[in-house]
Amino acid sequence: MLIRLKGKKNIYEEIVEDYTRYIRTGVLAEGEKLPSCRALASELGINPNTVERAYAELERQGLVRTIPKKGAFVALSGDGRAALREEAARQLRAWKTAGLQREELAALADKIYSEKTEESNDRTQ
Fold it and tell me: Taking the mean position of all CA atoms in its chain, how far away is CA 33?
């Protein structure tokens, strides 16, 4: 997973934005451990306090839970599920505005939900 600093916002906001997207889209699963503040700061070449601030914001939003001396973990339950629904609604509004018809979206959703996931394919092999 890659955090890209674009320089258009505060660094901690960019980290929050990237992790929020990864969590809401399922790239990061519930219970998955995030890199330590020091490790991510070293990787990005930034101050560890910046990463701590980003993790604190993610925790405030209910997307991450921090366990002292254990680390930060994805917490996509309760409020996180609500955040996922909000993101889906935002995307649906954008697609509606762009002209995607309800029937097209329903057909696409049916197709996606009928596909086997890679995880279920791995279990059958």
Answer: 13
Longest dimension (CA), the chain: 50
Coil, strand or helix at 69? coil
User: What does the radius of gyration of the chain's CA atoms come to, in whole angstroms?
Assistant: 17
Q: Give per-residue pLDDT as tens, 35-82.
A: 999 999 999 999 999 999 999 999 998 889 998 889 999 986 545 566
Mean pLDDT value of segment 86-115 = 89
pLDDT tens digits, 33-42: 999 999 999 9
Beta bridge partners of 33: 73
Q: How far apart are CA 1 and CA 74, in angstroms?
A: 14
Alpha helices in 25-66 (DSSP H): 37-44, 48-60
CA 58/CA 17 separation, integer angstroms: 9
What span, in angstroms and rounded, lies between the C-alpha atoms of 98 and 96?
Answer: 5
